[in-house]
Amino acid sequence: MSEFLQQLINGIAWGSIYALIALGYTMVYGVLRLINFAHGDVYMVGAFAGFYAVRWLDLGQEPTLFGAVVVFLFAMLVCALLGFIIERGAYKPLRKAPRLTALITAIGISLFLENAGQLIFGADPKFFPQIITKSDVISSGGIILTNQQLIVLVVSLCLMASLQLFIKKTKTGKAMRAVSFNRDAASLMGISVDRIISITFMIGSALAAAAGVLVALTNPKIEPLMGIMPGIKAFVAAVLGGIGNIPGAMLGGMIMGIAEVMVVGYVSSTYRDAIAFAILIIILLFKPSGLMGAFTGEKV
Amino acid sequence: MKRSSGLWWGVMGVILCLFIFSCAQKEDVIVLGEFGSLTGVTATFGKSTQRGIEMALDELNQTGGMEGKRFKIVVEDDQSKPEEAATAVKKLINQDKVLMILGEVASSRTLAGAPICQDAKIPLITPASTNPKVTQVGDYIFRVCFIDPFQGEVMAKFARNTLKVSKAAILKDIKNDYSVGLAQFFTETFTGLGGQVIAEESYAEGDIEFRAQLTSLKAKNPEVIFIPGYYTEIGLIARQARDLGIKVPLIGGDGWDSPRLVEIGGKALENTYYSNHYTPEDPRPEIQKFITEYKTRYNETPDAMAPLGYDAAKIAFDAIKRSGILQEQNIKKAYKENPKASYLMEAINTPGNRQPIRDALAKTKDFPGVTGMITIDENRNAKKTAVVVKIEGGKVMFVETINP
């Protein structure tokens, strides 16, 4: 029993990383109807931004809460900027082009970031210094939950909730939803569509950066290709929860994380990646709109 | 007027340079090839090996080369990828037309390059690939390190006899020939010695989350966990194992050996042991001389890959020398047989010339290498001793030597 509970904790902690990356995917898709395949690589850039921030601030030796927050915010800021540049440079000129063109550009950006990362950061894996001192929150009956795992979970829940609030309650959020419904009509209502899309990208990329720093907190090894697999899995998580739906992304990420850990723990690690894609196929067969996605009839 | 004369001198200078360069190209250098992971996930393997080889090369050239000929080594990076390793080997053979090849630490990448060398009948020496399959590729493939059955045996003996444990668990990298092989040989010896392997789990290279596997291993209460992987994953595995409250010793093979290991693993690596080819603490004069020289050149204590690269290069030079192909009369003969050849490498670059090198390599006996006395056996593997080291206070400490 304690083994199962420990696996559940492992799964939830791991799933919250997927959930965080999936949030960005789902948000960009919700507004733009574009699957931003470069999202996993923005997550990588986020982790590296955090890494260099720790170095510059020289926080590696004595972790402080303040330092951790600074690192976190710095990484989010860098990635928000990166998201803005990617959107303005690569996607905006293609706004009127067929959707496939934008999709292929997204793959191009993804490859560009991966290889530029290897060039700039070096392909050698790097150790991400501990910015929060590890301690056990629960440590009884063979179950261990570290404060780092708890932080990952709490931060991702908070980010999800504030994102949901932002979209439902603020004026910008309302504008985002309007752009998502009908871009032309939104612009007729006086909404600056370009600005809204840029903001969407910046928030999405900042979320990816948050995920990057959080994953580096519990799994402190970062390298330029670290975003590929999590990127794909988070995409599956977003589809699973219903792409475009924010609580759905969270749910999808959790399910993915727990499913993966359970398969590895009780079956075999060989099926670790297979389970993600098996879930994707099943969900596409039986509920193509995802667990929490609304069914939208095809307009003929 | 003045200006144009300056231009004139410039042109003259360029022509002179070109002339010198064209001469340099025809200089009588012997070209060998090397492929390794200079970048990519296991970059320290390739870099250390390359430094070792470079030291051996400079030593040879500074003492006047061999039979008055200087040597050159063309280095190709395979980015830690097997498919790139195959490309690198093809380039060395077809484009650089090397006499022989030194290369690769990772067994899976040596295995990608070895069949190409075997087909072209180019001798290949791997400094550190320990999987038995490597030299089984053919009679042109050699190694200067021990093999996995021995390494698996060493750690099984160590766990059973020195740590005195009877219940072991294994966590192996399922995508890696080296890791799977080591796990198998460990199990064979360990059960042979009356121990029991109570659980076996796996991961894949590049994973960063191992808590699921470690949790299910922990539930079985092993007394030791054998993790035959590479340093890239070991640091994180150790960290997560200690996070989950696994306090038993973690043991592994030479894939652990890298300056990066302790950097990633930190304190979690206390109470861990691994088998290795050599230890910098060994007082033998060959080792100490090598270490001092390495430190002055690269400002770092060498890991095991550096002396292995050094030994591989030394053995290659030794075999070329003993093969006699660089002797005056043999070079003359080579020029006679290849009348079109305009420089030395072109003349001696014949398949027939590799045969004596291969034969000389196969006859290597009691070669005093940095990593020990090297004798190449009938399966083209090196017979050598292994050491077991321990990580204590972030430093690698010598524990014991285990003989074959």
For the structure shown, list the relevant keywords.
heterodimer; A: 300 residues; mainly alpha; ABC transporter involved in vitamin B12 uptake, BtuC; two-stranded antiparallel ribbon; 4% strand; B: 404 residues; alpha/beta; Rossmann fold; seven-stranded mixed sheet; five-stranded parallel sheet; 48% helix
Mean pLDDT of chain A: 87
The poorly predicted ranges of chain A are none
Strand order of the largest sheet of chain B: 7-6-8-9-10-14-15
Q: Largest beta sheet of chain B, briefly?
A: 7 strands, mixed
Oligomer: heterodimer
Outline the low-pLDDT stretches of chain B. none
Basic shape of chain B: elongated
Order of helices and strands of chain A: HHHHEEEHHHHEHHH
Number of helices of chain B: 15
Commentary on this structure:
The complex is a heterodimer of chains A (300) and B (404). Chain A has helices at 2-32, 39-57, 65-91, 99-121, 147-169, 171-181, 183-188, 193-218, 228-241, 246-266, 272-286, and strands spanning 126-127, 136-140, 143-146, 221-222. Chain A has 300 residues and is mainly alpha-helical. In chain A, the strands form 2 sheets. In chain A, strands 1-4 form a two-stranded antiparallel sheet. A two-stranded antiparallel ribbon of chain A has the order 2-3. The radius of gyration of chain A is 19 Å and the shape is globular. Chain B is built from 15 helices and 15 strands. Chain B has helices spanning 2-25, 43-62, 82-94, 107-120, 133-136, 148-162, 177-192, 211-219, 231-243, 259-265, 285-298, 305-323, 328-337, 344-348, 351-362, and strands spanning 29-36, 70-77, 101-103, 124-126, 141-143, 167-173, 196-203, 224-226, 250-252, 272-276, 367-369, 372-376, 382-383, 386-392, 395-402. In chain B, helix 2 (43-62) crosses helix 12 (305-323) and helix 6 (148-162) crosses helix 7 (177-192). The longest helix of chain B has 24 residues, at 2-25. At the A-B interface, helix 1 and helix 10 of A face strand 7, helix 8, helix 9 and helix 10 of B.
